[in-house]
Amino acid sequence: VECRIPKDDGSLASFVGFRVQHDNARGPMKGGIRYHPEVEPDEVNALAQLMTWKTAVADIPYGGAKGGIGCSPGELSLSELERLTRVFTQKIHDLIGVHTDIPAPDMGTNAQTMAWILDEYSKFHGYSPAIVTGKPIDLGGSLGREAATGRGVVFATEALLNEYGKTISGLKFAIQ
């Protein structure tokens, strides 16, 4: 979808956004929205497929989806990011839903981004706090969300090492 927004200096900027829904056989689709200059359809499609597999392997009743906007979030002001997020939500609000596709933060997005999506989506569909995960705690978000991914990596790594009779102490890792 094309997302045109006024910039703070009065000029217009145009960005391209994507939302790919891969599979809903196990339940509503789930996946992050990333803001990065190199976001493109093939990458978003591959990430949506990976989300399907991640939820299946973890036996979580969700399917896979992913989204993104080709932009450099560090080069946009907070008000420009808000306008971009709201326009993107206006373009995809009929594609997402609490029973169909639930966005979450990813690279370049955060709890504030999810709050804007929640607010904009609610203008079309009524107040819907379950439309996103990763939202601020005061909007119903989960305490510890920002550290959850890293903590999960540690737990999974420790479980794998335990299978081989090793401990994490003294080992070096590269994580991509």
Automatic annotation (TrEMBL):
Single GO cellular component term: mitochondrion
PROSITE patterns (UniProt xref): GLFV_DEHYDROGENASE
Keyword set, alphabetical order: Oxidoreductase
One GO process term, biological-process aspect: L-glutamate catabolic process
EC code: 1.4.1.3
The protein's name: glutamate dehydrogenase [NAD(P)(+)]
UniProt organism field: Papaver nudicaule
Reaction(s) catalysed (UniProt annotation): L-glutamate + NAD(+) + H2O = 2-oxoglutarate + NH4(+) + NADH + H(+); L-glutamate + NADP(+) + H2O = 2-oxoglutarate + NH4(+) + NADPH + H(+)
Protein family per UniProt: Belongs to the Glu/Leu/Phe/Val dehydrogenases family.
Molecular function terms from GO: glutamate dehydrogenase (NAD+) activity
UniProt keyword Oxidoreductase present: yes
Glutamate/phenylalanine/leucine/valine/L-tryptophan dehydrogenase dimerisation domain location: 2-123
